[in-house]
Amino acid sequence: MNRRNKNPALRAGLCIIGFFTLVALLAPLLAPYDPYALGTPYLKPSAAHLLGTNDVGQDIFSELIYGTRVSLAIGVFTSVLVTVVSACLALLSGYYGGVTDKVITALTNLTMGLPSLALTVLLVAYLNPGKSSVMIAIAVTAWTGTTRILRTRVIQLCRMPFFKIEKAMGVRGAVIMGKHLVPNLKDLLLTRAALAVSSAMMTETGLSFLGLGEYGEKSWGSILHYAFYRNGVIRGQVWWYLPPILCTTLTVLGFMLIGYYGAQKRRRHNA
Question: Looking at the domain that runs over 74-270, which CATH code has it been given?
């Protein structure tokens, strides 16, 4: 039996992410109402409104379903951006070394020394709140950890005899990177990408909760924002603010379990 199929953490992570991905894709079919349609405010959960309605009468269950699309999309696209930037910088730094390595390492250390959340908030505010601004702001502050880890691995690979022979034969750096280095970084890239999604989703939820998301956009963070700032907590409407918290927590857990499997696999390979 395949070792992958025996890993409960991986299966649990894939099931969680698969579920929320289906919800995001089938949102128009699953949502009983238009999430922007107005109705009677502050209704309690019932057969007609499974999670009740918010302060302007919008169906919270429909908001939650459509919010899956936005929150998941921001997490995934930000992760792709972070992973690509980190991989490019790590390859340049680890392969070429010298001045290139010193400059990239100095930039990495400088960025890591900055308060990431404060910098992210300032960037979003400067760029104007919105999905693109949130993704760019998160990516600007989230690439450092992945870059350092990938750089270390690239340096290890470049010290292997095979790569030294390739360089001695005059093979171009771009060819060596694309043909040999990147394939050997595959597992590490996937692990870091999965963890980057979870980190990006938590940050997006926090930014939207602070009111820095795109105005009127339905995301789990924006649902939390309105639940707290429109008296949902004071009224004791647990069905308004608890579901987005649970959805965010479960999705983050799913990606972390996938990342954990990747880390386990890499440790077994290096043992």
Answer: 1.10.3720.10
